[in-house]
Protein backbone atom coordinates (compact mmCIF):
# COMPACT_ATOMS: atom_id res chain seq x y z
CA UNK A 1 0.00 0.00 0.00
CA UNK A 2 1.37 3.35 -0.94
CA UNK A 3 1.23 5.76 1.98
CA UNK A 4 -2.50 6.28 1.88
CA UNK A 5 -2.86 9.59 3.70
CA UNK A 6 -4.18 12.69 2.06
CA UNK A 7 -1.69 15.45 2.61
CA UNK A 8 -2.64 18.65 4.32
CA UNK A 9 -0.86 20.41 1.50
CA UNK A 10 -1.25 23.81 -0.08
CA UNK A 11 -0.16 25.56 -3.24
CA UNK A 12 2.12 28.57 -3.15
CA UNK A 13 1.97 31.55 -5.49
CA UNK A 14 4.04 29.63 -8.04
CA UNK A 15 1.53 26.76 -8.00
CA UNK A 16 4.02 24.45 -6.32
CA UNK A 17 2.45 21.86 -4.04
CA UNK A 18 3.75 21.98 -0.49
CA UNK A 19 3.32 19.35 2.19
CA UNK A 20 4.71 18.53 5.60
CA UNK A 21 6.25 15.31 6.79
CA UNK A 22 7.16 14.25 10.29
CA UNK A 23 10.17 12.18 11.33
CA UNK A 24 11.57 11.32 14.73
CA UNK A 25 14.96 12.26 16.12
CA UNK A 26 15.85 8.68 17.10
CA UNK A 27 14.99 7.51 13.61
CA UNK A 28 17.27 10.19 12.17
CA UNK A 29 20.06 8.97 14.46
CA UNK A 30 19.81 5.51 12.88
CA UNK A 31 21.70 7.04 9.95
CA UNK A 32 23.27 10.20 11.38
CA UNK A 33 26.14 10.53 13.83
CA UNK A 34 25.92 14.04 15.27
CA UNK A 35 26.42 15.99 18.48
CA UNK A 36 23.70 18.50 17.54
CA UNK A 37 20.65 18.63 19.79
CA UNK A 38 17.16 18.35 18.25
CA UNK A 39 16.71 22.12 18.62
CA UNK A 40 20.04 22.76 16.91
CA UNK A 41 19.08 20.44 14.05
CA UNK A 42 15.88 22.44 13.62
CA UNK A 43 17.62 25.82 13.80
CA UNK A 44 20.61 25.15 11.57
CA UNK A 45 18.81 23.15 8.88
CA UNK A 46 16.08 25.77 8.69
CA UNK A 47 18.68 28.47 8.06
CA UNK A 48 20.23 26.73 5.06
CA UNK A 49 17.91 24.04 3.79
CA UNK A 50 14.66 22.34 4.82
CA UNK A 51 12.26 24.42 6.86
CA UNK A 52 11.75 22.50 10.10
CA UNK A 53 8.68 24.26 11.44
CA UNK A 54 8.70 22.69 14.89
CA UNK A 55 10.30 20.08 17.12
CA UNK A 56 8.11 18.45 19.75
CA UNK A 57 9.14 16.16 22.58
CA UNK A 58 7.03 13.01 22.65
CA UNK A 59 7.98 10.55 25.36
CA UNK A 60 11.70 9.90 25.14
CA UNK A 61 11.90 11.08 21.52
CA UNK A 62 11.47 14.28 19.49
CA UNK A 63 9.37 14.76 16.37
CA UNK A 64 10.40 17.16 13.59
CA UNK A 65 7.62 18.75 11.51
CA UNK A 66 9.22 19.57 8.16
CA UNK A 67 7.84 21.58 5.25
CA UNK A 68 8.53 20.03 1.85
CA UNK A 69 8.10 21.94 -1.40
CA UNK A 70 7.78 20.22 -4.75
CA UNK A 71 11.22 21.19 -6.06
CA UNK A 72 12.97 19.75 -2.98
CA UNK A 73 11.28 16.40 -2.69
CA UNK A 74 14.77 14.89 -2.36
CA UNK A 75 14.86 15.67 1.37
CA UNK A 76 11.35 14.35 2.14
CA UNK A 77 12.54 11.32 4.09
CA UNK A 78 14.64 10.38 7.08
CA UNK A 79 17.59 9.65 4.80
CA UNK A 80 17.04 12.93 2.93
CA UNK A 81 17.16 14.95 6.14
CA UNK A 82 20.26 13.04 7.23
CA UNK A 83 21.94 14.03 3.95
CA UNK A 84 21.00 17.67 4.52
CA UNK A 85 22.37 17.49 8.07
CA UNK A 86 25.70 16.06 6.90
CA UNK A 87 26.07 19.00 4.51
CA UNK A 88 24.81 21.80 6.80
CA UNK A 89 25.61 21.07 10.44
CA UNK A 90 29.44 21.17 10.08
CA UNK A 91 29.13 24.78 8.88
CA UNK A 92 27.91 25.59 12.40
CA UNK A 93 30.65 23.64 14.16
CA UNK A 94 28.56 20.53 14.76
CA UNK A 95 29.68 17.00 13.98
CA UNK A 96 27.59 15.28 11.31
CA UNK A 97 28.42 12.17 9.31
CA UNK A 98 26.69 9.03 8.14
CA UNK A 99 26.88 5.99 10.40
CA UNK A 100 26.35 3.88 7.29
CA UNK A 101 24.79 4.24 3.88
CA UNK A 102 21.50 2.30 3.97
CA UNK A 103 21.35 2.29 0.18
CA UNK A 104 24.50 0.18 0.21
CA UNK A 105 23.53 -1.92 3.21
CA UNK A 106 20.07 -2.89 2.01
CA UNK A 107 20.46 -4.41 -1.42
CA UNK A 108 19.82 -7.71 -3.16
CA UNK A 109 23.43 -8.75 -3.67
CA UNK A 110 23.26 -11.35 -0.92
CA UNK A 111 19.97 -12.77 -2.18
CA UNK A 112 19.22 -14.81 -5.24
CA UNK A 113 16.04 -15.41 -7.15
CA UNK A 114 13.94 -18.52 -6.65
CA UNK A 115 14.33 -19.54 -10.29
CA UNK A 116 17.98 -20.23 -9.44
CA UNK A 117 16.75 -22.92 -7.11
CA UNK A 118 14.34 -25.82 -7.50
CA UNK A 119 11.29 -23.85 -6.42
CA UNK A 120 7.93 -23.58 -8.15
CA UNK A 121 7.47 -19.85 -8.66
CA UNK A 122 4.19 -18.00 -8.67
CA UNK A 123 3.38 -16.58 -12.06
CA UNK A 124 2.71 -12.92 -12.86
CA UNK A 125 2.33 -11.66 -16.41
CA UNK A 126 3.26 -7.99 -16.78
CA UNK A 127 2.43 -5.85 -19.79
CA UNK A 128 3.23 -2.14 -20.06
CA UNK A 129 1.36 -0.58 -22.97
CA UNK A 130 3.55 2.53 -23.07
CA UNK A 131 7.08 2.39 -21.67
CA UNK A 132 7.05 6.14 -21.04
CA UNK A 133 4.36 5.70 -18.38
CA UNK A 134 6.80 3.82 -16.17
CA UNK A 135 10.50 4.22 -17.02
CA UNK A 136 11.53 1.86 -14.21
CA UNK A 137 9.41 -1.14 -13.26
CA UNK A 138 10.30 -3.40 -10.35
CA UNK A 139 8.10 -6.06 -8.78
CA UNK A 140 8.57 -9.13 -6.63
CA UNK A 141 6.16 -11.74 -5.27
CA UNK A 142 6.55 -12.54 -1.58
CA UNK A 143 4.94 -15.84 -0.60
CA UNK A 144 3.89 -17.39 2.72
CA UNK A 145 3.09 -14.01 4.26
CA UNK A 146 1.56 -13.91 7.73
CA UNK A 147 -0.48 -10.79 8.40
CA UNK A 148 -0.12 -9.48 11.92
CA UNK A 149 0.92 -6.52 14.00
CA UNK A 150 4.16 -4.68 13.32
CA UNK A 151 7.16 -4.63 15.66
CA UNK A 152 6.71 -2.04 18.39
CA UNK A 153 9.40 0.34 17.13
CA UNK A 154 7.79 0.53 13.68
CA UNK A 155 4.34 1.14 15.12
CA UNK A 156 5.61 3.83 17.48
CA UNK A 157 7.56 5.65 14.78
CA UNK A 158 4.67 5.63 12.32
CA UNK A 159 2.19 6.89 14.90
CA UNK A 160 4.61 9.65 15.99
CA UNK A 161 4.88 10.68 12.33
CA UNK A 162 1.10 10.87 11.98
CA UNK A 163 0.54 7.57 10.18
CA UNK A 164 -1.91 4.96 11.40
CA UNK A 165 -0.47 1.49 12.01
CA UNK A 166 -2.54 -1.03 10.02
CA UNK A 167 -0.65 -4.33 9.79
CA UNK A 168 2.90 -5.53 9.27
CA UNK A 169 2.78 -5.52 5.46
CA UNK A 170 1.15 -2.12 5.00
CA UNK A 171 3.25 -0.62 7.78
CA UNK A 172 6.49 -1.76 6.15
CA UNK A 173 5.52 -0.09 2.88
CA UNK A 174 4.79 3.18 4.68
CA UNK A 175 7.93 2.87 6.80
CA UNK A 176 10.11 2.41 3.71
CA UNK A 177 8.72 5.51 2.06
CA UNK A 178 9.33 7.69 5.09
CA UNK A 179 12.78 6.20 5.58
CA UNK A 180 14.05 6.45 1.99
CA UNK A 181 11.64 8.71 0.11
CA UNK A 182 10.59 6.01 -2.34
CA UNK A 183 6.88 5.17 -2.46
CA UNK A 184 6.09 1.46 -2.70
CA UNK A 185 2.82 -0.38 -3.11
CA UNK A 186 1.65 -3.85 -2.15
CA UNK A 187 -1.09 -5.94 -3.72
CA UNK A 188 -2.77 -9.13 -2.59
CA UNK A 189 -1.47 -11.54 -5.24
CA UNK A 190 -4.54 -13.79 -5.07
CA UNK A 191 -6.82 -10.85 -5.89
CA UNK A 192 -5.05 -10.20 -9.21
CA UNK A 193 -7.28 -12.04 -11.66
CA UNK A 194 -5.60 -14.14 -14.32
CA UNK A 195 -2.20 -13.59 -12.74
CA UNK A 196 -1.94 -10.62 -15.10
CA UNK A 197 -1.20 -6.92 -14.66
CA UNK A 198 -1.52 -4.50 -17.57
CA UNK A 199 -0.32 -0.93 -17.17
CA UNK A 200 -2.00 1.51 -19.52
CA UNK A 201 -3.64 4.90 -19.81
CA UNK A 202 -7.19 5.13 -18.55
CA UNK A 203 -10.18 5.81 -20.77
CA UNK A 204 -12.37 8.81 -20.06
CA UNK A 205 -15.10 7.93 -17.60
CA UNK A 206 -13.49 4.78 -16.22
CA UNK A 207 -13.92 4.37 -12.47
CA UNK A 208 -11.86 2.89 -9.67
CA UNK A 209 -12.65 2.45 -5.99
CA UNK A 210 -9.49 3.39 -4.12
CA UNK A 211 -8.21 2.16 -0.78
CA UNK A 212 -10.05 4.92 1.07
CA UNK A 213 -13.29 3.39 -0.31
CA UNK A 214 -13.99 6.37 -2.56
CA UNK A 215 -15.01 5.97 -6.18
CA UNK A 216 -12.89 8.07 -8.53
CA UNK A 217 -14.04 8.87 -12.06
CA UNK A 218 -11.02 9.23 -14.30
CA UNK A 219 -10.68 11.96 -16.94
CA UNK A 220 -8.62 9.74 -19.26
CA UNK A 221 -4.88 9.47 -19.81
CA UNK A 222 -4.23 8.47 -16.21
CA UNK A 223 -1.74 5.72 -15.40
CA UNK A 224 -3.74 2.70 -14.25
CA UNK A 225 -3.22 -1.02 -13.74
CA UNK A 226 -5.80 -3.58 -14.75
CA UNK A 227 -5.80 -7.30 -14.04
CA UNK A 228 -6.64 -10.20 -16.32
CA UNK A 229 -10.36 -9.64 -15.92
CA UNK A 230 -10.18 -5.99 -16.98
CA UNK A 231 -10.74 -4.59 -13.47
CA UNK A 232 -8.77 -1.50 -12.51
CA UNK A 233 -6.70 -2.43 -9.44
CA UNK A 234 -4.37 0.57 -9.09
CA UNK A 235 -4.39 4.29 -9.75
CA UNK A 236 -0.66 4.16 -10.21
CA UNK A 237 1.53 6.49 -8.19
CA UNK A 238 -1.44 7.86 -6.27
CA UNK A 239 -3.51 5.19 -4.54
CA UNK A 240 -4.18 1.49 -4.91
CA UNK A 241 -7.50 -0.14 -5.61
CA UNK A 242 -9.65 -1.52 -2.81
CA UNK A 243 -10.19 -4.74 -4.77
CA UNK A 244 -6.52 -5.76 -4.47
CA UNK A 245 -5.86 -4.49 -0.95
CA UNK A 246 -4.01 -6.39 1.75
CA UNK A 247 -6.37 -8.05 4.23
CA UNK A 248 -6.02 -10.43 7.16
CA UNK A 249 -6.54 -13.28 4.65
CA UNK A 250 -3.62 -12.29 2.42
CA UNK A 251 -1.06 -15.07 1.91
CA UNK A 252 1.01 -13.74 -0.98
CA UNK A 253 2.03 -10.16 -1.73
CA UNK A 254 3.17 -8.36 -4.87
CA UNK A 255 5.60 -5.58 -3.92
CA UNK A 256 5.89 -2.71 -6.42
CA UNK A 257 8.74 -0.19 -6.49
CA UNK A 258 8.20 1.97 -9.55
CA UNK A 259 9.14 5.21 -11.24
CA UNK A 260 6.20 6.83 -13.03
CA UNK A 261 5.88 9.67 -15.51
CA UNK A 262 5.65 12.65 -13.16
CA UNK A 263 3.69 14.77 -15.64
CA UNK A 264 0.94 12.16 -15.87
CA UNK A 265 0.80 11.80 -12.09
CA UNK A 266 0.53 15.58 -11.64
CA UNK A 267 -2.27 15.82 -14.22
CA UNK A 268 -4.26 13.07 -12.52
CA UNK A 269 -3.77 14.62 -9.10
CA UNK A 270 -4.95 18.02 -10.32
CA UNK A 271 -7.94 16.73 -12.30
CA UNK A 272 -9.27 14.22 -9.74
CA UNK A 273 -8.35 16.09 -6.55
CA UNK A 274 -6.85 12.91 -5.12
CA UNK A 275 -3.60 14.00 -3.50
CA UNK A 276 -1.41 11.67 -1.49
CA UNK A 277 2.12 11.81 -0.17
CA UNK A 278 3.08 9.26 -2.82
CA UNK A 279 1.78 11.40 -5.68
CA UNK A 280 3.86 14.31 -4.42
CA UNK A 281 6.98 12.14 -4.41
CA UNK A 282 6.40 11.00 -7.98
UniProtKB/TrEMBL annotation:
UniProt GO BP: phenylalanyl-tRNA aminoacylation
A Pfam family hit: B3_4
Any one GO molecular-function label of the UniProt entry: RNA binding
One GO cellular component, as annotated: phenylalanine-tRNA ligase complex
Stored Gene3D superfamilies: 3.30.56.10, Phenylalanyl-trna Synthetase, Chain B, domain 3
Full protein name: B3/B4 tRNA-binding domain-containing protein
Domain of life where this protein originates: Bacteria
Domain B3/B4 tRNA-binding: start-end pairs: 133-282
